[in-house]
Amino acid sequence: MSGRWLTRIAAALLFISLAASTLPRLIAIVTNARTLQPLTYEARRERQMGPWYASIEKLRAELPKKEPVALIAPPRDLDAAVFANYYLYPIHTRLFAGRNAYRNAAPDPTRPKVIVAVNALHAERTEYDILRDRDLRAGRRVVTVPQLSGPIPAFILPIAASVDGPSPDTFLIEATLANPNAAPAEVRVTFWPKGVVRTIAIPAHSTAGYYDFVYQLFGIMSSGWIDVESSQPLRGAFYFVNRGRGDATLLPNASPATAIEPGALYRDTKLFIINPKGTRATAILNGESIPLDPHAFISRPIESLPAVGGDVYAFVSTRELNGRTNFLWPQ
User: Fold this and answer.
1) How confident is the model over 19-34, as pLDDT tens digits?
2) Do the beta carbons of residue 327 and residue 240 sit within 8 Å?
3) Which of 70, 195, 199, 214 has its CB surrounded by the most CB atoms within 10 Å?
4) Do residue 99 and residue 52 come from a single domain?
5) Three-state DSSP class for residue 188
6) Are 119 and 209 in a shared domain?
7) pLDDT tens, 90-108?
8) Are 253 and 156 within 8 A, CB to CB?
């Protein structure tokens, strides 16, 4: 057999082997093309890209057409956010690499108010507080072994917050309520000065824990003070926490007191005054009378410790240079 025939036979065998390996794929491509041909552009995309593109189509129908939209995506999924930006056109979007990038842009008046969370699996319209709660729930509490009080039927938390500053500052209340009794406890929690009330039940010999007491109970990001009343004496521990810095301060059970303990003042120092009663009160601040509504919660910046009087509760917060929040409580 001549060399020419050997070459032809080898080429034929190579072609057959390649055809055998690629033919199924080629048939699949042709079949897919025939299936997609009668569909609309959007239907083709959804068929090819699956649930992710379906979520984009849903967003195109529900997002405002003339309002900018924030696309918040984890850094690992920024490519998905870029594609979302493309497919949502002509809606104007702005990309943020994670929730912290969005909150750090708070001083920017052009920061979009409408939020879309994007990852490699889907995109959905949401709210900032929902993203924040999702992150906090997935993390760990700062205080792993809370210092519980003795059994008492009521607590007054002089400060209660669920708020964010620039990253990493995330302020919240970590709470633990233990029911040592043989009967279940019905607990009434009131967030002042908004006056919002929630009731929780703690079974006998059970413990309830909260990573963000204010938001978990009331669904709001705000600050104020809290009144806790229980049908059974409870052991409790409430911590003012900066989750982002890992700081925690055990809160006292407040009752009217104004003689603030001396201590060092740093930056962002504030005086807080609360009226824990259901009637009007008057605070005396450096000789000045300040009328307070029932359940009032006020604050003002200070540079030195003031003289405070009246049937109220007063305390000071100050931040060290490393970002830690310190409190000066009344004696």
Assistant:
1) 556 656 655 545 555 5
2) yes
3) 214
4) yes
5) strand
6) no
7) 999 999 999 999 999 999 9
8) yes
Number of domains in the chain: 4
Query: Does residue 324 fall inside a structural domain?
Result: yes
Report the distance separating Cα 307 and Cα 92, nearest Å: 54
Please check whether residues 201 and 296 belong to one and the same domain.
no
Three-class secondary structure of residue 319 per DSSP: strand
CATH code for the domain of 192: 2.60.290.11
108 assigned to some structural domain = yes
Q: Are residues 192 and 276 in the same domain?
A: no
Choose between 17 and 253: higher pLDDT.
Answer: 253
Give bridge partners of residue 157 from the DSSP assignment: 226
String of b and e for 221-245 (b: at least 16 CB within 10 Å)?
bebbbbbbebbbbbbbbbbbbbbbb
Q: What is the pTM of this model?
A: 0.85
Question: Which structure tokens are listed for 188?
Answer: 């009434």
DSSP single-letter state for residue 98: S
Least confident of 19-28, 250-259, 314-323: 19-28
For the residues 222-235, what does the mean pLDDT come to? Answer: 98
Boundary (domain end) residue, out of 254, 280, 308: 254
Q: How far apart are the first and last CA of the chain?
A: 110
Instruction: Specify whether the CB–CB gap between 327 and 317 falls below 8 A.
Output: yes
Three-class secondary structure of residue 19 per DSSP: helix
- Full DSSP string of 41-57: HHHHHHHHHTHHHHHHH
The band of 36, judged by pLDDT with boundaries at 50, 70 and 90, is very low
pLDDT mean across residues, the chain: 90
Q: Structural domain of residue 65, as residue ranges?
A: 42-126
Of 73, 91, 126, the residue at which a domain comes to its end is 126
Residue 132 domain flag: no
In a domain, 10, yes or no: yes
Strands 114-118 vs 69-73: parallel, antiparallel or unpaired? parallel
Tell the residue number behind the tokens 């057959």, with chain if given. 16
Whether residues 291 and 330 share a domain: the answer is: yes
Residues 6+ apart with CB under 8 A from 5: none
